[in-house]
Each structure stands twice: as structure tokens, then as C-alpha cells.
Write a structure and sequence with these properties.
The chain is mostly helical. Helices cover about 65% and strands about 0% of the residues. Helix 7 runs antiparallel to helix 8 and helix 7 runs parallel beside helix 20. The chain starts with 15 loop residues before the first helix and ends in a 7-residue tail after the last helix.
């Protein structure tokens, strides 16, 4: 007589969120195009909108696009170096040892995905560039150790720092620009000043270090971690790296044959030159921050990149290991190099034809002092889908966003926080910033966006509630 299967041995079934994640992943794998198609499609949409919604002539739209196409080359280089220096640091032996230790903690596929999401978010608060690479390396290491963990879910989890709290942390572009003298043109500073903010500067104490901002960070981390734990496929439905045909074997640093170093290659395997360079760069950074009026506000992309590079040189110890790490990181930036000029062209059309002002007027016209932070978050998310600039587009939007904040008497620092929250949400829908980790993990955007969509659906209403409710506890100007 057949016996009923014991409940203890019955296969685990996915819950509602897990089923939704699997369904969305199946849909995105079939229908979502490559990330580059998003850049091309956004170009078409913005050009058409500028022609239909602004007084700009076709010739003016074309000129705006062409003149702006190469305008973000320095920023493109900075973003590329964020990825490369972050990879150099994350793949050094000491950091690798930390990653291996952390990767050994989870015992179940769901726990592994949730843990990667948690570390991705917490590390992104300190620096999004390091978080992006650190979390991707952690995801690969976890995939080697945890049986039947879904590789797509791990990859999505490693990206969630950029889809949630990165802009509310120490490397948040808008907050850095508002707190740093010279980071914004004088005209924008005058608008922010408006007679109530000395010099038009808003320090970190009134943006990322507000207790309201810190509470929002904690709530977001808790919700996203829970969502990813629920969304992670059960073992029977998971697709591992092996299932996807992805080899997780790490390339080893080539060492001299037989341990003999040719005279010409001696310096490549010596610490002599790295020690000198680290001492030189370290001295410069110490002097730079000692001479800065406010050390935290003096943090820039350039100082972050230099710090990461120097620390990477120190941890890799020899030029040979450093060069190998940089070589391994370089393929991860090809998407940035290809796509960022197109997004620069899009940004130029939006600003050059005053389409951005039309968008802002549309949102501001339906808001009041209570709803304005939520409107700013929505606006930032919408525009971020078309221009995923890592926060650099704040220089374009700050004039009319902050002027509206003055008019509506809204806490100015909280407007920056709301803007940053929306900026991060856009990354869950727009695959541009996924490109570095997708290159490292051997996946495509369509493989992971089902999970990021689920997180967006959960996080979007939470963000709107947070910026509205917590904003009520803050008074104008700050």
C-alpha cells in the first residue's frame, strides 16, 4: 500500500512574493532588452517630448543633443574608476578573506540571498562604488558555497544598495554637492540661499545625518532584506550558476615560473615602488583633509577613487597583482563607456530645451508643503529612468526644485533626502548601473530585473510614506 509523503520531506513551495519574483523574472527574461536599448529608446522618447512639449525647433534639439553628447567625459572616467578601484580593493587578499568568512555564514539559499542584500545595502551607505563590487564578489563566493542558491537572485541582491539607500549615505551625490563649496555654480547657490541659508550650503547634519534620514535607512534595509528572503526561489525552482552555464572558477595571479623573477620583472614583484606611491598619495590625502574646513564635506569622487586605489595598491602589495586586478576589472566598465555619452546627450536635450522645467512645473503644480517631498521623490525616480547619472543631474534640477521648496516652505535638507530616495528607486527599473556587476557575474539585465521589480513594488509606497510622514517633523528652512 502506498504511503503518504511525510510533511518533513515535502518540497518547499514558494510564497506569494516568491511566485511573483519568479513570474516577473520569466517575463523579464523574455521581454526586457539589453541595457543599451534603454539608452537608445530613452533618446528617442526625450527628443520627441522636446519637439512636442517645448518651443525648441528640430535644429535646436539636434544641436542640444550633439553638443551634450561628450559633455560628461570627466564624469564617465570618474564612474569607471569607481568600478575599477572598487574591484581592486574588493579582490585584494585581505578583503577576499573577509568576503570568504562572510560567505560561509548562510546555511540556506534564502538566507544567502537575504544576507547578500543586507551587506549590499549597509556597505553602499559608506560608498556605493565599493559596495557594488564588494557585493558582487560576495555573491559569487556565496554561490560557490551554498547549494541550490539561485544565482539570479544573488546577483539582484548584490545590486540593491544602489536601488535603495546609497544616495542617503556618505557618497550621495546631491548631498555632497549641497555641502561642498564650489560644487555648484554661484547662481544655484544664490537660489538655495534666498536670504535664509548662509552661502547656499546645506551640511550633512541637515541631510544624511538627520535622524529622520537614518530611520528611513534602517526601515528600508529591513524591508528590502525581508522582501529578498521571501522572493528567493526555493531549491526546486532555483537556477544555479552551473544551471546557467557560468563558470565560477577564479583566475589566479600569474607567478614567475619556478619562483625565479627575471631581472627586468623584478620591480613588478617588489613592494618598493608601491610603498613609495602609497606614502606619497597618503600624505597628499592627509594634507587635503587637514586643510579642508569640514573633512566630511571635502569627500569627492576624486578623493574616494584615490583612496581606494592607494588602499588597493597597499593590499595587493606588488604591481603585478595590482595590474592583474585592474585587468580583471576593466571588462566591467565597457557598458559605462558605451552608454554614458548617450545619457549625456539625453540630459542636454532635457535641459537645453527646458523640458526639465516643464516636468518640474507639472509635478510642483499639484503639490503643497506636505506632499512636495513625495512629489520630488517621484519626479527624481521618473527622470532617473531616463538619465541614470549617479546623482550628477542634481546640478540641473537643483535650481527649480530648491526654488519650489522655498516657495512651499519645505525643509531644504529633507528635499535633498527625498530627491536621493527617488534617485535610488530609479535604479531598480533602469539597468544602467547593473552593468558593472552583470559583467562580473556573467549575466544580463533581463536575468535579474524580475527581482529588482519586486523590490521596487515593495519599496516605492514605503518611500512615499516615509518622506511624507517624516517630513512633517521638520521645519523650514532646516
Amino acid at each position: 500500500m502506498p504511503t503518504a509523503k511525510s510533511p518533513a520531506t515535502a518540497p518547499e513551495q514558494p510564497g506569494a512574493i516568491g511566485r511573483a519574483a519568479l513570474a516577473l523574472t520569466s517575463w523579464t527574461e523574455r521581454w526586457i532588452p539589453d541595457a543599451f536599448i534603454f539608452a537608445l529608446a530613452a533618446t528617442v522618447i526625450v527628443v520627441v517630448a522636446a519637439l512636442l512639449w517645448t518651443p525648441a525647433t528640430p535644429a535646436q534639439v539636434v544641436d542640444a543633443w550633439g553638443n551634450g553628447f561628450w559633455s560628461l567625459i570627466p564624469f564617465t572616467m570618474q564612474m569607471s574608476l569607481i568600478i575599477i578601484t572598487g574591484h581592486v580593493l574588493a579582490t585584494s587578499a585581505p578583503v577576499r578573506a573577509v568576503i570568504c568568512t562572510i560567505a560561509a555564514w548562510p546555511q540556506t539559499p534564502r538566507g544567502a540571498v537575504a544576507m547578500v542584500a543586507f551587506f549590499a545595502m549597509t556597505s553602499s551607505w559608506f560608498n556605493w562604488g565599493f559596495s557594488l563590487i564588494f557585493s558582487a564578489v560576495l555573491a559569487r563566493e556565496v554561490a560557490r558555497r551554498v547549494s541550490r542558491v539561485d544565482y539570479r537572485a544573488l546577483a539582484a541582491a548584490s545590486f540593491l544598495g544602489l536601488g535603495s539607500i546609497w544616495a542617503q549615505g556618505l557618497s550621495g551625490s546631491a548631498a555632497l554637492q549641497m555641502a561642498t563649496p564650489g560644487a555648484l555654480p554661484p547662481q544655484i547657490r544664490d537660489i538655495v540661499d534666498s536670504g535664509v541659508v548662509a552661502g547656499g550650503l546645506i551640511p550633512f547634519a541637515h541631510t544624511i545625518f538627520l535622524w529622520q534620514s537614518l530611520v528611513a535607512v534602517v526601515i528600508e534595509i529591513a524591508i528590502v532584506t525581508l522582501v529578498m528572503w521571501l522572493a528567493a526561489p526555493v531549491a526546486a525552482r532555483a537556477r544555479t550558476a552551473a544551471d546557467l552555464g557560468i563558470d565560477l572558477t577564479e583566475r589566479q595571479v600569474p607567478e614567475p615560473a619556478g619562483g625565479q623573477v627575471p631581472p627586468g620583472a623584478w620591480l613588478e614583484h617588489s613592494m618598493l615602488l608601491p610603498v613609495f606611491v602609497v606614502a606619497l598619495g597618503g600624505t597628499y590625502l592627509v594634507r587635503y583633509f587637514l586643510n579642508a574646513p569640514h573633512a566630511i564635506n571635502a569627500i569627492t569622487l576624486d578623493t574616494v577613487n584615490l583612496s581606494f586605489l592607494l588602499l588597493g595598491i597597499l593590499l595587493h602589495r606588488t604591481p603585478a597583482r595590482l595590474m592583474h586586478a585592474v585587468q580583471a576589472a576593466t571588462p566591467a566598465v565597457w557598458g559605462i563607456l558605451l552608454q554614458f555619452p548617450f545619457y549625456a546627450g539625453i540630459a542636454a536635450v532635457i535641459t537645453g530645451t527646458h523640458l526639465s522645467q516643464q516636468l518640474a512645473a507639472l509635478f510642483v503644480g499639484v503639490s503643497n508643503a506636505t506632499t512636495f517631498p513625495a512629489v520630488v521623490a517621484i519626479y527624481s525616480a521618473v527622470l532617473g529612468v531616463f538619465v541614470p547619472s549617479g546623482g550628477s543631474k542634481w546640478i540641473i534640477e537643483a535650481p527649480y526644485v530648491m526654488a519650489a521648496a522655498h516657495e512651499l516652505k519645505v525643509h531644504l535638507g529633507w528635499v535633498v533626502v527625498a530627491y536621493d530616495l527617488g534617485e535610488a528607486l530609479a535604479n531598480l527599473l533602469q539597468p544602467f548601473w547593473m552593468l558593472p556587476i552583470l559583467g562580473m557575474l556573467g549575466l544580463r539585465a533581463r536575468d535579474v530585473m524580475g527581482y529588482t521589480f519586486v523590490v521596487f513594488l515593495a519599496l516605492f509606497p514605503v518611500v512615499l510614506i516615509l518622506v511624507t510622514v517624516l517630513g512633517l517633523t521638520l521645519a523650514y528652512p532646516f
